[in-house]
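## retry 2 of 3
previous attempt timed out at serialization; input unchanged, resubmitting
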Amino acid sequence: MKKNLTIVIAALIVAAMAIPASAAKLTLSGAYSAGWTYDTRVWTPTNLAEASKLTLKLEFTEGESIVAYLPLTVKPFVGEPEVAVGSWYFSYATAPFSFWVSPNDPWNAKQFSALGDPLGIGAKLGGGVVLNAKGNILGAGLNIYAAGLATGAEAYLGRATYGLPAEFTLGLVGAYTVTDPETDPDELILGADVVGPIPGIGGNITVAGAAQLSKPYDSTWGFEGMPSNDNYAYRLALTDIAVGPVTKAWASYTAVGGMFTDPYKASPASAPGAVLNKYAGKAAAEVGV
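## retry succeeded, writing output
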């Protein structure tokens, strides 16, 4: 499947680059640097060749829709140089979807952002080649990630949101993980949530639930595991409720099954949105003002 992911990413880049480049622009910038040695109060470039390097930054733009950024480091600049690729990315902003692909480095301009579901199912994603597609279709907002992670696993995460009457929002979230198709089961997490204002009394209500399923490595289609196997998570929360002089009262009930494991949840337990981590293997009813 990793080969298929690579083919998809390459096809998207080639297709975008094949668009007539009436407003295309290629920008190249760089810097050359070298080291000097100090010995007996004398600076000498005796090791200048081996200590030298050339850094290049290539940026291709096509109007406001296509941007390709590729930083390179050539070191040493003479002899037998090695070329190292820096934190590159390619983006294609179009309608109804925009796309980008990058190695998902923390310092990259294009990197994973949390899906924003109430349970925090898709809160983080490790390094690797990551493809993102985001846009709106038939009134639904979609945010989809496909990644070949540095760990060797493949990850597919996504969230869809749809506006409902009375200012409510319906959300669907999924996370599918492939580790080793020949020895390890595939893991699938499916969740749904509804968020909106509480009619009549003000405040907001959040109802969210998710279940984790596994597909044995020797099974083509079937998934195993149901909520009765303790691989579920759900939450009911009332927030921003006005009670007398108090305007920010809240109450919640959260439960996370002991067998519910999510490699993309927020951590540590004290981190914002780390619901699955904080309540792992337990249930809690809470009230606050």
